[in-house]
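#struct-pred

JT: dropping the chains for the assembly here, can someone run the whole complex?
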Amino acid sequence: MKTLLQRIYLWIDERVELQGLVEYMGKKYVPVHRHSIWYYFGGVSLFLFIIQVVTGILLLLYYKSGEELAFESINFIMSKVQFGWLIRSIHSWTANLFILSAMIHMFSVYFEKAYRKPREITWVTGMFMFFLALGFGFSGYLLPWNELAFFATKVGTDIAGVVPIIGRPLMIFLRGGDEVTGATLSRFFGFHVAVLPGLFTVFLSIHLLLVQRQGMSEPLDIKKETEQKTMPFFPNFILRDLTLWLLVLNLLAILAVFFPWELGKKAEAFASAPAGIKPEWYFLYMFQTLKYIPGKLWFLDGEILGVLLFGIAGFLWTMVPFWDRKSSRGEQNRFVNYIGLFIVIYIIIFTIIGWLA
Amino acid sequence: MNQIPEIPENKSKRDFLQWVLAGGVTAFLGAVLYPIFAYLNPPKQAEVEVSSVKAGKLSEMEKESGKIIKFGTKPVILIRTANDELRAFSATCTHLDCTVQFRKDFGMIWCACHNGKYDLNGRNISGPPPRPLDEFRVVIQGDEILISKKT
Ligand code: FES
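RK: done, full complex below.
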């Protein structure tokens, strides 16, 4: 007698040849070495993204966009809806942990040079997702329509406006007009719940497909060692992944319960900006840099220069698999390490300065 | 045996077809994309040109205080100085668009966003603001304060 589960499996297998996939998964191995720990951050990021989708959909059931409704509806979620405070707090916390975990994932891939041939596409799709994540953060920040978010959005979109030629149309496009108003809120809401998730899903699918198809990259220096230890992807690696996910979920619960996310004061278009306007921490190092660039430099505006520099840096960073030829040939490239190290230190120092300021 | 007849290369004809195809595709894309881009561009709201607004009663405003007045869609800051002068400036910081405020303790106009400072003539004196604040005209009619654009 076959169990019901086996019968279902056979029924599907007969039609879509599941067997091949299962065999493929069974033959997949994850290299084990002293840098193995870094393999887990991609999975953690994926888990956090899934949490964002679930809690985001839940919030969507009560959230109302609009100048007169947004703040009130979040207030309603947090005070009237059962466990509303928890869902919102988790959504806000996860957003931050997601960016953090994605950053760790990105830097570990960078330092291991896992982006090298043949994994260029995986890296580039990952970078696209990272930029989208920043977009998620920026657009989501405004949705509660509170004072801090209102002015942070004013400043953020104004910075976008300094880019030569495309800046002004871009700012108008983002704001839905000349000023940050209810129109901006509607647009950001649309980006946050429809445009960005749609794009993200496309890149995520490619990214995951490639990881499955090509397997995990091995660091260059470890490749030389003759003795190669591995671990089966299924079930060993998956089970470890799941354990870690459980830990992360616990961490989230603790953060959300003991450090609930504040809602702040409702935004008012005709009030002075309050003290303490700061962007989210992951924009802070850029923001802080802008403060140090003098207002006028030669013939360029300080802001323009800063925005251009960050734009170029982001572009070069995304393109690293294409200019770092050495790693693709299997040679060590220290230069890449130094750049990476410089950037990590830069980000940490400027984030701290910005935070203390 | 039948011989396959040689097809004479007709370069000009092929070029012509390629042009037609490329042009057609471009026109098609244009016809699809143009309305979308036009749609994304928010329409100009017919703004009611405001030339002057009432800013409250003089007797209700303390010396050394400031307040934000709604001037059409833009904020304007009205200040009553220590030596009893009334001044009004655009309240939009010339740096990155935040709304400024009057700080009694500094005797200055202050922008909280990046610690920009203006003196009571609206001149940018410290911090990132690149330009002074635009000045508005203040007129007193009886007890009523009126603010209008400088021409
Ligand atoms: S926006 Fe006023 S100082 Fe930057």
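JT: nice. Residues B 93, 95-98, 111, 113-114, 116, 127-129 surround FE2/S2 (inorganic) cluster (CB under 6 Å). The two ends of chain A are 71 Å apart (CA to CA).
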